[in-house]
Amino acid sequence: MRSQRERMLEATSRAVSELGYTNLTVAAVLERAGVSRKTFYEHFSDKEECFLAAFDVVSEGLVRSVSEAFNARHAWRERVHDGLAEFLRVLAAEPDFARMCIVEVLAAGPAALQRRDGVMRTFTVFFDAGRAEADPDQELPELVSESVVGAIYELIYARILRNRTEELPDLLPDLMYIALVPYLGPQVAAIDYRATAERHLRR
Question: pTM for this structure?
Answer without folding.
Answer: 0.92
